[in-house]
Amino acid sequence: MTKEEIVAGLAEILEEVAGVNPEDVTEDKSFTDDLDVDSLSMVEVVVAAEEKFGVKIPDDEVQNLKSVGDAATFVLNQQAA
Amino acid sequence: MTFSRIVSMGHYQPSRVLTNDDLAQMVDTNDEWIQSRVGIKERRIADSETVADMASAAAEKALAGSGLSAADIDLVVVATTSSIDRCPNVATRVAKKLGITAPGAFDLNTACSGFSYALATADHAIRAGASKNAIVIGAEKLSDITDWTDRTTCVIFADGAGAAVVSASDTEGISPVLWGSEPDKGDAVVIEGWRPYIQQAGQTVFRWATFSLPKLAVEACERAGVKPQELAAFVPHQANLRIIEPLARKLGAPDIIVARDVVESGNTSAASIPMALSKLVERREIPSGAPVLLFGFGGGLTYAGQVVRCP
């Protein structure tokens, strides 16, 4: 899976979980500041991402995933591992 | 075979209302933030009332509605995690206040799941012949153990009490309980030390409550032999509207009544289920005899649920 594909997958999740317009989802966007995803919605995004990408995202790691790019990189590294 | 059933309910809340606007004067928060994160509009905070005062007031109402007298009660069980005094326990203080002269009387602490544990314990005592008429109470004064400078917790917690009179019955009015815990996640909610305050890892609790608990709530129904769609109502612990709504949705029973007392009462830990149920009964929203799923969950992490027949 490429990083672009992961970002597209995250956009689908964000639309479903938090009603975010998929066009707004780019690597530089902050979940909380730009996309208005609060801490509880972020948990739903993480759980959906775990299922969609077949990875494990520990609770401790969630706070480090500030931007869409952070999350895509984390998923990419997990898939490679 | 002897079973047990809930005969009557009662609840008590302090008169002092604390609104979101009031909280915005105390910490950096606002009404919109609180409503969107936890769904709470206002909550009740005790002034001089103790846990035992609130427990007694709720129990008095439940007893008055039961048709029984204090002399009939042989067991008092109080679920609480916020009673500061260790001895005498809350249960004996309630008994003294109500004139119940020689009951078995004990407190039980499983934090927010406490009422369902206490109700199961009373049910077991009655099934075993150790009690005929019990009072089961959930009572909390969380304002005593809330850090009023911590905006992540002080917007959530509140005070109150709810009580049920539980009597022996020929029919099963309280189903076998599904109870359990996840000790490995204990750090997610803590009230620790000599001057304890509630601290919680909100995201961890939210994830557990919305992704691990739904299947357990369905299992509690299976244990009772009731399909979720056959329930009249679902009364989960009133933790947070953002937890209650997905939990209810995942039961797969869209038409049943779901208790949302958290909006007006905040999170009152072990008191939240009996308060919410008592209000539904008082407003006659559930027909007598209809099945209601109670499901408590919280610190420990612990959980317990059972299906009861509405009094």
What are the SSEs and their pairings?
The complex is a heterodimer of chains A (81) and B (311).
Chain A: H1 3-18, H2 39-53, H3 59-62, H4 68-80
Chain B: E1 3-12, E2 17-19, H1 20-24, H2 31-38, E3 42-44, H3 51-64, E4 75-79, H4 90-98, E5 104-108, H5 114-127, E6 133-141, E7 159-169, E8 178-181, E9 189-191, E10 198-200, H6 202-224, E11 233-236, H7 241-249, E12 257-258, H8 262-265, H9 272-282, E13 291-298, E14 302-309
Parallel strand pairs in B: 4-5, 4-6, 11-12, 11-13
Antiparallel strand pairs in B: 1-7, 2-3, 6-7, 8-14, 9-10, 13-14
Helix pairs in contact in B: 3-4, 6-7
What does it look like?
- The complex is a heterodimer of chains A (81) and B (311).
- Chain A contains four helices and no strands.
- Chain A is mostly helical and 81 residues long.
- Helices cover 31% and strands 25% of the residues of chain B.
- Chain B is α/β, with parallel strands linked by helices.
- The interface between A and B is small, with 10 and 11 residues.
Q: Report the portion of residues of chain A in β strands.
A: under 5%
Q: Largest inter-chain interface? A: A-B, 10 and 11 residues
Uncertain spans of chain A: none
Percent helix of chain B, as a range, is 25-40%
Order of helices and strands of chain A: HHHH
By helix and strand content of chain B, what is the structural category? Answer: alpha/beta
CATH level 4 superfamily of chain A: ACP-like
Shape of chain A: globular
On the 0 to 100 scale, the average pLDDT of chain A is 92
CATH superfamily of the largest domain in chain B: Thiolase/Chalcone synthase
Major beta-sheet overview of chain B? 5 strands, mixed
Beta-strand fraction estimate of chain B: 25-35%
